[in-house]
Amino acid sequence: MDKIDVAILQILQRNGRINNADLAGQVGLSASACHRRVRALEKAGIISSYVALLSAEKLGMASSVFVQVTLENQRRENLNRFEEAITHCPQIMECFLMTGDADYLLRVSVRDATDYERLHHDVLTRLPGVKRVNSNYAIRKVFRRTALPLAVSEVNQIK
Q1: Does a structural domain hold residue 156?
Q2: Average pLDDT value for residue range 88-117
Q3: Which of 131, 58, 137, 124 is nearest to 91 (CA)?
Q4: Is pLDDT above 80 for 151?
């Protein structure tokens, strides 16, 4: 990757719907050369998908809860069962296997405290192998990034 690839990625992270001609003009390439580079970035898996970012607030899902989940044990089959089960809950937006006191950290999107109480009681505590659930309710979102930080010097190391 070079500085033009990085520029393409930075622009696409801000506006995934930009047309190829405008993208090419912003990075100083012909439309066909720009198109080839974007396709190469897609083929390499650097661009994994294109999505629309929705307003959780406007859709009534503005509350975020960060949930630490501790399992009864960390045997591979228990981790696999838990990970498979959480993929079926659309309110779980992200899940990370963690080091430290808890095994998993989840980011959950809910309408309000009542909605979270239902999710906690009916879903989270009933997931396979769950020993303990510790919840932290976000007061407000300060900011959210969807774009990865890209610097030419760091990205040049990716081959």
Answers
A1: no
A2: 97
A3: 124
A4: no
**Total of domains in the chain:** 2
Identify whether the C-beta of residue 47 lies closer than 8 Å to the C-beta of residue 5: no
pLDDT at 81 over 90: yes
Is residue 158 over pLDDT 70? no
- Please state, as a whole number, how many other Cβ atoms lie within 10 Å of the Cβ of residue 123: 16
Instruction: Indicate whether 152 belongs to any domain.
Output: no
Question: In this structure, which amino acid lies at residue 75?
Answer: R
- Tell me the residue range of the domain where 127 lies: 63-137
Statement to judge: residues 83 and 117 lie in one domain: yes
Please give the single-letter amino acid code of residue 21.
Answer: A
Helices 20-27 and 3-14: angle between axes, nearest 10 degrees: 130
Record the pTM. Answer: 0.85
Same domain as 76, residue 12: no
Residue 38 lies in a domain: yes
Torsion of CA 65, 70, 71, 74, to 10 degrees: 120
pLDDT band at 154 (very low <50, low <70, confident <90, very high): low
Q: Are 105 and 68 in contact (CB under 8 A)?
A: yes
CATH of the domain at 85: 3.30.70.920
